[in-house]
Amino acid sequence: MKILKLWTDSNGYPRVGRIIISIIALAIIIWLVLSSITVVPAGHVGVHDLFGDVSKKEYQPGIHLKFPLASVVPMSVKTQEYTMTYTQGEGSKASDDSIVAITKEGLSVGLDLTILYSLDPSEANEVYKTIGTNYVSVIVRPQIRTVIREVVAGYEAKQLYSEDRLKVSLEIAEKLEPELVKRGIMLERVLLRHIQLPNKLTSSIEDKLTAEQEAERMQFVLQKETQEAERKRIEARGIADAQEIINQELTPVYNQYLAIQMMGSLVDSPNTTFVFVPTSTEGTGVPVILNAETK
What we know:
Layout: H1 2-7, H2 16-35, E1 37-40, E2 44-50, E3 53-54, E4 62-65, E5 71-76, E6 80-84, E7 99-102, E8 108-119, H3 124-130, H4 135-152, H5 157-161, H6 165-181, E9 185-196, H7 199-249, H8 252-268, E10 274-277, E11 288-291
Antiparallel strand pairs: 1-4, 2-3, 2-5, 6-8, 7-8, 8-9, 10-11
């Protein structure tokens, strides 16, 4: 009843002015409560900004209380990727964003590249103050293009097309990382996706690589044949040595004994019809012909 009396006069009519003031006060209270609560999503840090005065301490993910008139800007600290390519729809920009660099011999080559990076959580407030939220276009992209042109200038085109491609990626990362770190951005990896060389040069390099592979294959074949020839020479020397030993050790009597043994096996064989038997130990006598069927 007391609450109703506050909003009505002595005659029971509503006090319009008092009701309006009460509604406004209630709205202000609700706004103050809601404006004092902020939520920083996962994978982000919050930068507290009060009329241009940026707090030195970042808000971690979760619910926080803040001054109602201040704003908390969420900045992602997740791993992000930036791709530069001439293929529409694949890069960070809709248009051709590939990098054209000059090689050591003065040829123009196009490069498709992706870098993985993330914002240093402890430097988010400094990045926000000195660069803003568009630090990718202000810092990341220009630094990538500058470093790539500097690195490519130290290589010949054929090196970029061959196994030195990984070496180029590592050198780009080595030179790009300190440039980004000092601006509060951490480099994780550099991926050199594709290198576009002039068509004639590409064909020339491919022909040369094919010729080198064929030469390596022929070298392997020749090495294999050399090893096989050496094996045969060793085998022949072994046979010759064995024959020499046999010739020195075997006597005519022992030879006659071996001949008799062999003939005995032939006589016992169902497939043998005639057997020639030497009549002297020196093998100079007239051989005797035996009929194996009448043995």
